C-alpha cells in the first residue's frame, strides 16, 4: 500500500479507539520497551543518556508517552521534547525539566514554551510517532517531513524507535531515498528489530 492510502486507513483505525484502549495499549508499549533486545552492532538502548520523546496529540489518538516519561525519569535519563515550526518544517529541541512550561500549539501539539536548547546531534535515542510502518523499518507519518528532517540531523548511530498500536504492513510501496529507516518498532504485542539497517 502507498503512504497516502496508509494514512487514511490508520487514521480511521485510531479514531475507533476509546481512551481506555489507548491507555492500556500505551502502557503495554512502555512495558515492552523495557525488554528491547541488543542491537546487531552490540548497542544497548538503555545505556544511553539523551532520549527524545514526542508528546502525544490526544486529538489524533497517538500513543500516550507519559508512561515512557516515567520510565526515563526512573532511570535518571535526560529527556528532550520539541517545538515545531510549520513554516520551515523544522523542530527545535529542549531539555524537559520540572520548570518546563508546556502549551498546545494551533495543531494541538503539546510543546515547551522555551528552555535549554539541545542540538540534534546530541540526541542518542528518538521515540518516533507514526501512523504505519513496514517489515523493513520504513514509516509513514503525517506527511509534513518533520521527523525525516530531524532524524537526518541526528548522528547516524542515534537509535530510532517507532511506537505503534498496530503491527507491520508487508511493504510501503512509495519509499523515498531520504526517508530515514527505524531501528525498532514497538507495539503492544511485538518488538520489531530491523537489523537490515546495519
UniProtKB/TrEMBL annotation:
The keyword RNA-binding does not apply. SUPFAM superfamilies: NagB/RpiA/CoA transferase-like. GO terms for molecular function: 5-formyltetrahydrofolate cyclo-ligase activity. Its cofactor is Mg(2+). The keyword Membrane does not apply. Its EC number is 6.3.3.2. InterPro entries: FTHF_cligase, FTHF_cligase-like_sf, NagB/RpiA_transferase-like. It is an enzyme of class 6 (ligase). Belongs to the 5-formyltetrahydrofolate cyclo-ligase family. This is 5-formyltetrahydrofolate cyclo-ligase. It comes from Flavobacterium myungsuense.
Amino acid at each position: 500500500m502507498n503512504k497516502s492510502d496508509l494514512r487514511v486507513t490508520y487514521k480511521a483505525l485510531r479514531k475507533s479507539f476509546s481512551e481506555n484502549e489507548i491507555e492500556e495499549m500505551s502502557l503495554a508499549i512502555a512495558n515492552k520497551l523495557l525488554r528491547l533486545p541488543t542491537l546487531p552492532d552490540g548497542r544497548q538502548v538503555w545505556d544511553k543518556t539523551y532520549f527524545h520523546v514526542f508528546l502525544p496529540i490526544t486529538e489524533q489518538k497517538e500513543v500516550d508517552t507519559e508512561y515512557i516519561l516515567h520510565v526515563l525519569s526512573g532511570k535518571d535519563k535526560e529527556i528532550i521534547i520539541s517545538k515545531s515550526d510549520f513554516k520551515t518544517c523544522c523542530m527545535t529541541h529542549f531539555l524537559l525539566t520540572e520548570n518546563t512550561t508546556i502549551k498546545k500549539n494551533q495543531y494541538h501539539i503539546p510543546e515547551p514554551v522555551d528552555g535549554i536548547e539541545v542540538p540534534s546531534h546530541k540526541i542518542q535515542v528518538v521515540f518516533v510517532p507514526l501512523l504505519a510502518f513496514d517489515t523493513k523499518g520504513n514509516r509513514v507519518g503525517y506527511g509534513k517531513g518533520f521527523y525525516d528532517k530531524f532524524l537526518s540531523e541526528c548522528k547516524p548511530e542515534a537509535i530510532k524507535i517507532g511506537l505503534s498500536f498496530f503491527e507491520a504492513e508487508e511493504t510501503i510501496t512509495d519509499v523515498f531515498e531520504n526517508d530515514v529507516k527505524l531501528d525498532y518498532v514497538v507495539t503492544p504485542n511485538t518488538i520489531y528489530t530491523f537489523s537490515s539497517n546495519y
